[in-house]
């Protein structure tokens, strides 16, 4: 995946990368949120918040 960061703020870049990392890990774990959050070393509550915030869905 190649992302053009031109014209994006640092906050926007971080959000794009974070969203893709979460989405990718959820797919890798077949949407096992406990495993995905452990693999990414984030709290499950944080994982659920980010899924909702970024509109990530199956």
Model description:
By secondary structure, this protein is mainly alpha-helical. The chain has a single domain (10-54), classed as Arc Repressor Mutant, subunit A. It is 64% helix and 0% strand. α1 crosses α2, α1 (10-28) crosses α3 and α2 (33-39) packs across α3.
Shape: elongated
Number of domains: 1
CATH topology: Arc Repressor Mutant, subunit A
The average pLDDT score comes to: 94
Distance between the termini: 19 Å
Biggest β-sheet description = none
Q: Give the percentage of residues in beta strands.
A: under 5%
* Secondary structure: number of strands: 0
CATH class: Mainly Alpha
**Number of helices in the DSSP assignment:** 3
Structural class of the helix and strand makeup? mainly alpha
Low-confidence stretches: none
In the CATH hierarchy, the architecture is: Orthogonal Bundle
Tell me the helix content: 55-70%
What radius of gyration results from the CA coordinates? 12 Å
Compressed to H and E, one letter per element, the order equals HHH
Give the helix/strand layout.
Layout: H1 10-28, H2 33-39, H3 44-54
Primary descriptors:
58 residues; Arc Repressor Mutant, subunit A; mainly alpha
Could you give a quick summary of the protein structure above?
It is built from three helices and no strands.
């Amino acid at each position: 995946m190649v992302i053009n960061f031109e014209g994006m703020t640092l906050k926007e870049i971080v959000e794009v990368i974070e969203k893709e990392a979460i989405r990718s890990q959820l797919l890798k774990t077949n949407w096992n949120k406990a495993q995905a959050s452990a693999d990414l070393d984030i709290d499950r509550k944080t994982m659920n918040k980010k899924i909702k915030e970024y509109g990530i869905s199956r």
